[in-house]
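Troubleshooting: if your tokenizer reports a length mismatch, compare your output against this known-good record of 275 residues.
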Amino acid sequence: MVKLKKAAVFLLSAYLLISTMLYLLQEKLIFLPSKLPSDYTYSFTQPFEEIYLTAADGAVLNGIHFKREQPEGVIVYYHGNAGDLTRWGSIALFFVEKNYDVIIMDYRTYGKSTGKLSEESLFNDGQLFYEYALKHYDESGITLYGRSLGTGIATWVASQNSPFRLILETPYYSLLDLGKNRFPYLPVQWFLKYPLKTYEYISEVSCPIAFFHGTEDRVVPYNSGLRLFNSISVDKNTFFTIKGGQHNNLKEFQVYRDGVQEILSSYQSNKSEDK
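Known-good structure output:
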């Protein structure tokens, strides 16, 4: 009996210790930023303007605004959880080369951006860059694009505004859902500061939504994105399944490239009909 009590105390102590460590270290598990010196000079193959936007709490957010001479529209891009704009700016060139302007920001603590992270600040900063886009483009020409971590932010911004379209690459039902699946024996719902409940925000989105997800995604499981898609009406919304696609290689698949072209072409067709 004594041994059983000692074992129970040990297991409970270990459980509480692991839970406490996850609570304290969650930002290091979710966010994987790389920093850039304030005087770093970006270099891309397409024309761009570097921008700085100041949030209400004084945080300064760094971004890149790619500009074409006669763009088909603009894409406001919310990137994934790792790296900085040196990486994500290069990834965004895929859309710039399709004759779209692209506005892309670094989250707080990423690259040159400053400020303290929180779920509220992620949403507010996402809205700040959307408002920047509204100063330069008609809202009917704005496409929101979220990738991985950025899908929850892009969806929230879409729920608060009226963009032309929302595109989600490797989206999650919620970050809370992912956490519970990854740590099924821990009370993740009690301590996660970033639940990012995309399924709640998406119910308030009025524009068409396109989903892209690979069946071999080991970071955000395919079923998480499919569950999110199934939580809304199919009308006007599209789900592209990338067979064999992983988390970071969807651009290598023709289904993805053709799907993106189809979606962007639908905007061009809509614009022509409005003339």
